[in-house]
Amino acid sequence: MFVRPFRPALAALAVALVLGGCRTVQTVGGPAPSGVLPSNFGQHTLPDVLAHLADADTLTGLSGDGTLVIQSPQQSGTYDLSLAAASTGHASLTVSSFGIAGARALVRPDSVFVYNVLQRELLAADARRAADVLPVPVGPSDLFDLLTGTFRPADVATYALSVDRANGFYLLRSPDGRRVLAVDPRVWRVVRAVRYATSGGGVQEEVLWANYASSGSALLPRRLTVRQPGANTSVVLLLSGVRPDPAPAIPTRLNVPAGVSRRVL
Question: What percent of the residues of the chain are helix, what percent strand, and what percent coil, each to the nearest 5?
């Protein structure tokens, strides 16, 4: 699926959905992340790699501020972002510009709600249905793993493991060859994911995690990029202000004012 034209009213939704939308890395070029490769690099098995990624699963919540940068032929802009997210798949996001909140989003494992403050409209979408009609694909249940760089597709145990010695990565490839993850054993986190249109075909969607840094006892990416080359579109989240939070403040509802129009997508 490719990104549709971004609309200002859906800026918050773009964040919520783009974080949960990727179901998938090809061999990565460029400078390798800082750190030292394990002395037994190249000898790990697929269960070993997955176990290292699972070590971060003790993290239960995140909260803080960041920056959202959208670039597309239809719209480009930079927005302030405030988010709270839990490992349960629940999250809340506020996107603002010049100190004025333009949209608030509430994400649940099975649904997404967005209140367009400026147009006084509440949008609601089932997570599965939203993928067909909104700017970016949906998968809220994956949101937290994407934020923390520990993303693993549900069927990842069926992937084939190979070694990218040139860049020092482990590559995990799906049985159909269309999805590939790159895991950096210097930090034991996912650093890139690619979904191909066909096996051996062009890149349909790409996710990049970068600038991993310690925050308390957690290791978090400070930059998350989602690209869809066919649409010449990218969404970048700069997350330098996001920290672990064992009890993130996520409301159970958006509490929109009376008289707001409502639309189900």
Answer: 20, 40, 40
Q: Which CATH number fits domain 8-28+40-264: 3.40.190.10, 1.10.8.100, 2.50.20.10, 1.20.1440.230?
A: 2.50.20.10
* 77-115 confidence digits (pLDDT tens): 888 889 899 988 888 888 887 777 778 888 888 888 888
Q: Is 47 exposed, middle or buried (0-12, 13-18, 19+ CB in 10 A)?
A: exposed
Nearest CA to 33 out of 210, 239, 218, 224 is that of: 210
Residues 182 and 160: their CA atoms lie apart, in Å, by 12
CA distance 54 to 30: 27
Percent of the residues in the chain that have a pLDDT greater than 90, as a whole number: 28
